[in-house]
Give the backbone structure.
Amino acid sequence: MGAITLDDVRKNEEVKNFLEISEKQLKVLGYTEHSFRHVGLVSRTAGNILEGLGYGEREVELAKIAGYLHDIGNSVNRMDHAHYGAILAYNILTKMGMDVKEAAEVMLAIGNHDENSGTAVSSISAALILADKSDVHRGRVNNTDIATFDIHDRVNYAVEHSRVYVDRENKTAVLELDIDTKICPVMDYFEIFLARMTMNRRAADFLGLTFQLVINGNRLL
């Protein structure tokens, strides 16, 4: 059997089921979207980050796989979802036939992607962190009643455009956001995402980059 690819993972029925159950639970709890749109975006972005920095094809593919699987632990519980997800991913990948060393790298990255308990400990984990913590967008807001938005809903809904990219020549990782300040002042973004920005900075540093945050065309970090 050949090396396991992202396409193999996407087609896996167990993975599909875990993502569906994850989103079902998080909707009930009132969280922003963490299902197929989010994991697909994180997967592509994590792969693009390592590819842009010149990493090998296989490491890029593992970053994509880690990005796609990083939130399946929400199918168990939101609390400690990174750790549950890491173990679930390892078991799924090895059952699919992935080499145990590669599966362990994916496990390591997923287990360290949450700001409450993790940090960048490998290139794959660093790319995953940058990709995951930068997905702030109104498309993630499940709540349809603006009058009942909490600060997380408001901040995400205010973001009209977001992208993160690396500049290999200038050794920077840049997160660009366009925020409608009529919906949410920039200060509210920092209030709830300071820990995530600190995590992004450390992830960029692991990759030999400087992290920059640009909001509405103004560099703030």
Q: What stands out?
A: Residues 171 and 208 are 7 Å apart (CA to CA). The chain has one domain: 6-219.
